């Protein structure tokens, strides 16, 4: 769990009284505060004590205020104060307190925007980008989650662009740098996947074009690919192909009508070569307004959020009255907007240039269940056109399984600690080898050692996962998938409990998908049989081959996804109980690690981790834990899922490593798709 930094009522920096905590992420926390002299309410962002030792993160924190405040615009969050508090030694920023909501929430709550509502907001974004680009600042992660809609005193809408914490000042003649991992796949330009192509202002214009489509169509252009791709690697490969279908045709399947002229505009705005796109954001916006000639440039959006009310995710009002013929009427009936205070990108995607409390907000893509969601009349599995909530819930099922298998935040086995020497092993009462090792007398309790990772150590991991579903709606069908993988990781550099650099070799990934007993093709894993170097520096993870040559974007994505703990304290070590445990004792800190592994659309309930047995293998104590949990989507998610998993996990006492985890249980899916089945996960480590 993240640390509590400032409590309600305390006075920070001798002049800001804390009202409440609003958000927290991996790097910082955000509070609503009152300035004691002026009694004005502000947003206070502080850097967490746990990351104060990182000079790179401190520099990034300071740069955040400088980048945003160097550009005068009502559409960039205003910074009033910045510095380092003497009492706590924490860097801090004091910013305006926004009221409104994210563009992403507005779209999800009330659907697509009409041109009358969309174009004025897009015009504000375009004018702001002209200013930032003139100052040689490229945002690099524009997306609906980083666009915040608030209101002026006269009730008109105003946009705030968030997350300038990852913006890059473009050097003269360079056009960018080789840091390509920042961005969100749905809105990333082709050059962000290609280390040989520089980042430029046109990178932001590409993202703005996709934001435009999302606003007018109610879903992102690559929504279908995101939903149906069997893995993130397949999705990234599809996204890199660019626009393959006229957007007017794609939008029509979602019930949105776009004029034919929009296709030509979108084709130029999203051209694969940056030089073929519009030169300036204002030029791109002017061309868009020509696509919708009946929409007045100064059109406003109707009722605005009411000040003084607080609600996370409250919808803004939509305009009433007749709509243009080329855009069907969206949801009718204005809903009074409410105040939304900023949240952390690690939690909800808010940008660190505004209220972000850490992290780059650089995307949340996770593996998707391949074709498990519906059947066509022919019996072949086809994906539905799901809402954002549906997509999130579908990803959640695969995400939980993936986290358990690859050793993410749930089980936290990222191969980052000293290995044990391979020997024939025997557990007390359970033979796992040919020799027998008598249990030591002292098996009444177990104390875990949180051992720092050892440079030069090597660990071999093996994992398997399976999912079997019987579909009953919209048509009956059977779906079965399984995956087996191996990897060998050698620690090359570490600092305390934080691993900074590894060498990782992947064995063959064996993946199978069966539909009605017929094998379906699965995309090859880009890293099978290859060796890579992954290193953390300057807030990001870079990946090369073992000769330190550049790798492909899908290789980079896969390796980074497998080693998310690089540069961070190991989550499993922090979850280990500090006090000795006896048989029957609960391990609530480990249970909390499971609970924190899901996204905002899902909850883990009835989670229990209890020490079942204490065994000794080759003279080393190991704790065997009973694990049970029920995971389900929250109310309001269209595609509801429920999963009950039970099993065991075994943890070594001398270094805190999980050497075995086996979980299985039933899965139930209800909603547009109804299905029941089972899933199983097994992880083991040498």
What would you note in describing this structure?
- This protein is an alpha+beta fold.
- It folds into three domains: 11-96, 2-Layer Sandwich (Phosphorylase Kinase, domain 1); 101-291, Transferase(Phosphotransferase) domain 1 (Transferase(Phosphotransferase), domain 1); 388-685, no CATH class.
- Helix content is 21%, strand content 29%.
- α3 packs antiparallel against α9.
- The protein is globular and about 80 Å long.
- The two termini are 28 Å apart.
- Residues 171-181 and 297-441 have low confidence and may be disordered.
Set down the secondary structure blueprint.
Layout: E1 11-12, E2 16-24, E3 28-35, E4 41-47, H1 55-69, E5 79-84, E6 91-96, E7 101-102, H2 103-110, H3 115-134, E8 137-138, E9 147-151, E10 157-161, E11 168-169, H4 201-217, H5 223-228, H6 232-240, H7 247-252, H8 261-269, H9 281-291, H10 388-406, E12 426-427, E13 430-431, E14 445-446, E15 458-473, E16 477-495, E17 498-506, E18 510-515, E19 518-520, E20 531-537, E21 540-545, H11 553-562, H12 571-575, E22 581-582, H13 588-595, E23 602-617, E24 620-633, E25 640-652, E26 658-670, E27 674-685
Antiparallel strand pairs: 1-2, 2-3, 3-4, 4-6, 5-6, 7-9, 8-11, 9-10, 12-13, 14-22, 15-16, 15-27, 16-17, 16-18, 17-20, 18-19, 20-21, 23-24, 24-25, 25-26, 26-27
Helix pairs in contact: 3-4, 3-9, 6-11, 8-9
């Amino acid at each position: 769990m993240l640390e509590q930094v400032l409590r309600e009522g305390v006075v920070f920096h001798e002049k800001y009284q804390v009202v409440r905590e609003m958000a927290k992420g991996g790097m910082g926390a955000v509070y609503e505060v009152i300035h004691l002299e002026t009694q004005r309410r502000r947003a206070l962002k502080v850097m967490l004590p746990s990351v104060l030792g990182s000079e790179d993160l401190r520099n990034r924190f300071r740069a955040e205020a400088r980048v945003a405040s160097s550009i005068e615009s009502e559409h960039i969050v205003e910074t009033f104060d910045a510095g380092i508090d003497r009492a706590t030694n924490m860097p801090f920023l004091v910013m305006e307190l926004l009221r409104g909501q994210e563009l992403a929430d507005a779209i999800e709550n009330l659907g697509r925007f009409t041109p009358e509502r969309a174009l004025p907001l897009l015009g504000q974004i375009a004018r702001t980008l002209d200013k930032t680009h003139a100052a040689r600042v490229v945002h690099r992660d524009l997306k609906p989650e980083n666009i915040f809609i608030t209101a002026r005193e006269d009730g008109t809408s105003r946009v705030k662009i968030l997350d300038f914490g990852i913006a890059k000042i473009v050097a003269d003649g360079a056009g960018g740098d080789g840091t390509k991992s920042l961005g969100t796949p749905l809105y990333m330009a082709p050059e962000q996947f290609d280390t040989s192509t520089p980042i430029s202002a046109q990178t932001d214009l590409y993202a703005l074009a996709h934001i435009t489509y999302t606003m007018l169509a109610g879903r992102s252009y690559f929504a279908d690919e995101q939903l149906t791709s069997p893995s993130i690697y397949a999705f990234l490969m599809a996204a890199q192909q660019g626009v393959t279908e006229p957007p007017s045709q794609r939008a029509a399947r979602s019930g949105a009508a776009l004029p034919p002229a929009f296709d030509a505009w979108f084709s130029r705005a999203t051209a694969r070569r940056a030089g073929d796109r519009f030169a300036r954001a204002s030029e791109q916006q002017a061309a868009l307004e020509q696509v919708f000639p009946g929409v007045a440039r100064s059109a406003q959006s109707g009722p605005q959020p009411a000040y003084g009310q607080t609600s996370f995710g409250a919808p803004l009002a939509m305009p009433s009255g007749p709509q243009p013929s080329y855009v069907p009427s969206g949801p009718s009936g204005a809903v009074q907007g409410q105040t939304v205070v900023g949240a952390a990108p690690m939690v909800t995607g808010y940008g660190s240039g505004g209220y972000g409390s850490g992290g780059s907000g650089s995307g949340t893509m996770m593996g998707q269940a391949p074709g498990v969601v519906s059947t066509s009349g022919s019996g072949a599995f086809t994906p539905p056109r799901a809402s954002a909530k549906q997509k999130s819930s579908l990803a959640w099922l695969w995400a939980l399984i993936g986290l358990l298998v690859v050793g993410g935040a749930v089980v936290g086995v990222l191969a980052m600690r000293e290995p044990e020497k391979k020997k024939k092993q025997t557990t007390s009462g359970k033979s796992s080898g040919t020799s027998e090792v008598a249990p030591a007398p002292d098996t009444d309790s177990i104390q875990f050692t949180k051992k720092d990772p050892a440079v030069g150590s090597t660990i071999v991991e093996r994992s398997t996962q399976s999912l079997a579903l019987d579909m009953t709606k919209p048509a009956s069908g059977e779906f079965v998938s399984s995956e087996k993988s191996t990897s060998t990781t050698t620690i090359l550099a570490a600092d305390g409990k934080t691993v900074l650099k590894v060498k990782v070799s992947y064995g063959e990934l064996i993946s199978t998908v069966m539909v009605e007993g017929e094998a379906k093709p699965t995309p090859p894993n880009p890293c099978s049989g290859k060796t890579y170097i992954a290193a953390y520096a300057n807030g990001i993870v870079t990946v090369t081959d073992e000769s330190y040559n550049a790798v492909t974007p899908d290789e980079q994505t896969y390796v980074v996804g497998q080693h998310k703990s690089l540069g961070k304290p190991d989550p499993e070590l922090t979850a280990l109980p500090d006090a000795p445990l006896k048989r029957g004792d609960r391990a609530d800190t480990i249970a909390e690690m499971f609970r924190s592994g899901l996204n905002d659309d899902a909850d883990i309930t009835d989670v229990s981790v209890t020490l079942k047995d204490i065994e000794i293998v080759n003279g080393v104590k190991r704790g065997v834990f009973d694990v049970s949990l029920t995971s389900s989507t929250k109310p309001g998610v269209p595609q509801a899922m429920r999963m009950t998993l039970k099993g065991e996990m075994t943890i070594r006492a001398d270094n805190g490593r999980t050497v075995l985890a086996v979980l299985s249980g039933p899965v139930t899916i209800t909603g547009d798709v109804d299905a029941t089945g089972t899933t199983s996960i097994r992880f083991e480590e040498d």
